[in-house]
């Protein structure tokens, strides 16, 4: 590749990296432009670790022929099991172990190599395998994301010529920088979503990060906590406490998200969430749907934990509606994106009253009264109570006990919340 097209491709990579072209499209565009300028790439692979609670990293592929391989994929931990074995037999692991940044393998002569990937590429007609490991400096490292791995193959009879090798040595680091830029944006979104919630995370990334930047919203508030969690935590091995809390947090968070709610905060075994819609009757039904799904999730979870001989529990849920401030609260160097206001205190007190009246769900009168007629018919009063720290007494409601004992009523309620 001549200097002018090489500089043109570098400029394209920089521009697309700045504009945020998805990583798989970066790799595809890179390979197609290389081929058009005489660098005979037949297959390209770029891999980079990331920060994510579910997977270790992501990869991006391009092939010059139709393939059933996806052009973007995630991979799990490479530290255990078959994945660890495959990693240790890869060219990338070999390069890291031997301090290599570049490795060129003639696929017609694999004597002395034990790389399953190389054998697979040779069987598909590729002639050369070129791999790079481009390391980051300490300041550019994020967790395990400390380098970009890439491999390039060609079917050209003479493999990669010296001109193609020189071009790839110049160009691949620029591609790696563009991929790293996209990955860091994805990491920021992941961290925002996982630690703040989807809506709050998106708002922060959109620039709403200044202290005191809040807005008034009317929302349905959810507060739940586990029954007897303190006693259970004191009765089990320390190593079982976090799995216990995680299991039940997963059951509640999945239910809330499935119903369109936003989880704002985990407080020990407690969960604070919101359901917002321009029609608050829709938001209230969504909250009831989440509570109904939460009970189902716990039934499944408790059956599994009981079969394993592990402790089980249920949960108390309080539902309320009110006007709150939603946004950044805290100090200049430690902010929380959350909701504050009297209604937040009230919903936690409503949930705590579940123990007093021996009910798993309690709602405020404001919540119940805003339901449609069908919804109100499923709610029954538990009485009027003075809530700790709340100046006025509250009428509290729970689900009609017939929902638990009468299949016909249970079916009607299930159809109601599903709608």
Characterise the protein shown here.
With 419 residues, the chain is of the alpha+beta class. The protein has 15 helices and 14 strands. It has helices at 3-19, 23-36, 81-88, 91-98, 116-123, 162-196, 198-205, 229-235, 238-258, 280-307, 342-357, 365-369, 373-377, 402-405, 407-418; strands spanning 43-49, 57-63, 72-75, 102-106, 128-135, 147-154, 214-226, 262-267, 270-275, 315-331, 334-340, 361-364, 379-385, 394-399. The strands form 2 sheets. Strands 7, 8, 9, 10, 11, 12, 13 and 14 form an 8-stranded mixed beta sheet that branches. Strand 13 and strand 14 form a beta hairpin. Helix 1 (3-19) packs antiparallel against helix 2 (23-36). The protein is elongated. The protein starts with a helix and ends with a helix. The mean pLDDT is 92.
The global form is elongated
Low-confidence parts, pLDDT < 50 over ≥5 residues?
none
How far is the first residue's CA from the last residue's CA? 61 Å
The percent of residues in helical segments reads 40-55%
**What is the CA-based Rg, rounded?**
28 Å
Query: Can you summarize the main beta sheet?
Result: 8 strands, mixed
Total of DSSP H or I helical runs spanning 4+ residues: 15
Topology as a string of helices (H) and strands (E): HHEEEHHEHEEHHEHHEEHEEHEHHEEHH
Measured by DSSP, the beta-strand proportion falls in 25-35%
Mean pLDDT: 92
The secondary-structure class comes to: alpha+beta
Number of E strands = 14
